[in-house]
Amino acid sequence: MCLGIPGQIVAITDPVHHLAVVEVGGVRRQVNIACIVDDDHAVEDCLGDWVLVHVGFALNRLDETDARETLELLRQLQETQTTTMSA
Amino acid sequence: MKYVDEFRNPQAAQALLLQITPLAQQLAADWGRPIKLMEVCGGHTHAIFKYGLERLLPDCLELVHGPGCPVCIMPRGRLDDAIAIAQQPGVIFTTFGDAMRVPGSQSTLLQARAQGADIRMVYSPLDALQIARENPAQPVVFFAIGFETTAPSTALTVLQAEQEGIQNFSLFCNHVLVVPALEALLQNPDLQLDGFIGPGHVSTVIGLEPYQIIAEQYHRPLVVSGFEPVDLLQAIWMVLQQLVEGRHQVENQYTRLVPAAGNAVALAALQQVFRVRSAFEWRGLGDIPQSGFQIRPEYAQFDAERQFFIPGQQVADHRACQCGEILKGVLKPWQCKVFGTTCTPENPIGACMVSSEGACAAYYKYGRLGLSGQPSAVPATKTKVGAAPES
């Protein structure tokens, strides 16, 4: 029910009503992007954003730096274990 | 898929399991009992079963499946109310597909549709609003269910309807709140929980602050987690680290999508359209104070509870159904008398068997139960006997 899927905004279709097209795994559909627009991030800045799509709305922007940091931490963990086990 | 596949990496999962196992064993040895963590969200329950995580975790670490499935906690009386609205002449009743087969006291929405009610499944509340635009002479009601993840979308839809001056659209509001439900569980003496895996997509809306009460008042660690297997294992590891170090804090594994403050636009929309009910009835858990949203009087024209006659009866759960004990985590699904026999996904008696996020449906589909109906000891890869074929 709280299912959300990451997708990328590929077009802004109606800036007034905050409507955009998001591509999720190769499928495109219209979503409402009101939740990710504010004074610091205008509608036109949303093009290319990775967002979490839930019931036709982009709920939040995906922070690509944070995603990379999490993956880097996991990579380091794997590396440490490999080193420990082969030592 | 980008930002999904990376978090399904088996090597990372293996590395995390190598961290988790000794910590869990150490804690279980120190405490002389298994460790019990609750994953609150039904989406997490589904992922745990889909990826077989339970079978990878050490036996001394038990995952208790929480009440974070909006369909599962909907009491029969509210379903009766929804059906009563849908059966009124001229009404077009719109709902997410998940709610179609949830049993009320007499029937389901699916059966009511077969009997002639105009009930339509939608993907988004915006689709329901579009139906209202296209049918201006008919009242269009949206069955608003879901936690704080889903509530902003219905709030924003109401604001859109108001802006366009749409007169024939309303919500039957059944949105519920996570933290009051956790508090109710923590006050239940039957249930010993050592920590929580917090719901990721609720938290992308509400942020981390609302969980502080769990850490400060109830002294339990809570780690907000994403929905991929590596996310969940990392969150479990983080909870265990807290337990080993004697900490109880709110931490965030899902930083890529959960800012500490949540989403300001979504929170403002919730605040504008909804207020917190004094209490809301949850299936199996009873009335929980301050645990649901209702529409503010300023938006009364969009409130189906004010627009239509609603029976509003509290109806006890089916006699044979033990969904309440399942939702509280006191019973495992396979311990319920009707699990997999008279209660199946095709003919559910209780709501935990309806939604794919319900604990019973997850066990039924992925649980790899032996012929005795109990989890088989055979490793997952060798198991051939299942309670049900995968559909």
Describe the structure.
The complex is a heterodimer of chains A (87) and B (391). Chain A is α+β, with helices and mostly antiparallel strands and 87 residues long. Chain A has one helix and five strands. A five-stranded antiparallel beta sheet of chain A has the order 3-2-1-4-5, with no helix packed on it. Chain A is elongated, with a radius of gyration of 17 Å. The mean pLDDT of chain A is 93. Chain B is α/β, with parallel strands linked by helices and 391 residues long. In chain B, the strands form four sheets. A five-stranded parallel beta sheet of chain B has the order 2-1-7-8-9. In chain B, strand 8 (222-225), helix 11 and strand 9 (250-252) form a beta-alpha-beta unit. In chain B, helix 1 (10-31) runs parallel beside helix 11 (229-244), helix 2 packs parallel to helix 15 (359-366) and helix 7 (151-164) packs across helix 12 (264-273). The radius of gyration of chain B is 21 Å and the shape is globular. In chain B, 53% of the residues are buried. Classes of the chains: A alpha+beta (87), B alpha/beta (391). At the A-B interface, strand 1, strand 4, strand 5 and helix 1 of A face helix 1, helix 6, helix 7, helix 9 and helix 12 of B.
Q: Structural class of chain A, please?
A: alpha+beta
Q: Report the end-to-end length of chain A measured between terminal Cα atoms.
A: 46 Å
Overall pLDDT of chain A, averaged?
A: 93
Shape of chain B: globular
Number of helices of chain A: 1
Q: Calculate the mean pLDDT score of chain B and round it.
A: 91
Helix content of chain B: 25-40%
